[in-house]
Q: What sequence folds into this?
């Protein structure tokens, strides 16, 4: 069976799982979500042909983005009041996203073997966009639950660590040594801790769910950009200034757009 057919069949199965999840009663959706995510993971391993792969690290990396996206998108959609039309529409969007992620992960797997792949830069940029969208959906869901600050710290931090591990992998696979010795866990845990602190701060700061999610996504973008520059040894002064200015602009926006009192 060709890759395209595996991607297509796997996408259809994932869409079916998502659509059935939307049909579930509210009190059953968390069980349905676990089954849906399990189905998505299986479909990606099958579609990408790594289901019997011995490289556990590679096997885990290729499912992080679709897993986080499925989690965030499903939780986000569960907060909406949906009729039949919107359920079908959201399922189609989900399918398009999943199929695109199959193409992205395929490029990354090819890069691991050949290093110089013309589509890599476009694939990485697209994967970063997907990472930002996935971050928004999952952070929006976390903040919507109105959990205590320590739970927000834990979940925002944990999911950020996972996303930054994926970002490190997507950046480092282009390097001759796949980034060995670059300290991926240091990158991911430090950045994840910073994100967790922001999640904690937004538990007290009156930013609102939507704006809080946007600000967290901006932090993911800034840290990912700094990661890429540092891992590829291009962390020049101009790069620090550019991302520093973005960070200042976001901080000013947080302060000016909040309703105090």
A:
């Amino acid at each position: 069976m060709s890759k395209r057919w595996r991607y297509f069949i796997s996408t259809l199965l994932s869409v079916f799982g998502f659509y059935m999840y939307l049909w579930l009663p509210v009190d059953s959706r968390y069980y349905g979500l676990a089954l849906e995510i399990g189905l998505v993971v299986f479909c990606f391993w099958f579609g990408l042909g790594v289901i019997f792969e011995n490289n556990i690290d590679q096997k885990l990396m290729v499912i992080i983005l679709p897993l986080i996206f499925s989690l965030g998108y499903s939780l986000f959609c569960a907060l909406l009041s949906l009729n039949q039309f919107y359920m079908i529409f959201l399922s189609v969007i989900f399918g398009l996203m999943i199929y695109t992620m199959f193409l992205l992960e395929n490029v990354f797997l090819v890069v691991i073997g050949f290093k110089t792949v013309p589509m890599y830069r476009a694939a990485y940029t697209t994967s970063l966009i997907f990472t930002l969208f996935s971050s928004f959906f999952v952070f929006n869901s976390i903040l919507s639950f109105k959990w205590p600050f320590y739970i927000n710290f834990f979940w925002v931090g944990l999911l950020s660590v996972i996303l930054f591990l994926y970002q490190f992998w997507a950046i480092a696979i282009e390097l001759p040594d796949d980034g060995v010795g670059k300290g991926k866990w240091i990158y991911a845990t430090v950045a994840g801790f910073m994100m967790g602190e922001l999640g904690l701060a937004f538990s007290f700061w009156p930013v609102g769910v939507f704006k809080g999610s946007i600000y967290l996504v901006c932090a993911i973008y800034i840290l990912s950009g700094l990661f890429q520059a540092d891992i590829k040894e291009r962390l020049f002064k101009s790069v620090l200034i550019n991302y520093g200015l973005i960070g200042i602009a976001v901080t000013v926006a947080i302060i000016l757009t909040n309703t105090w009192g």
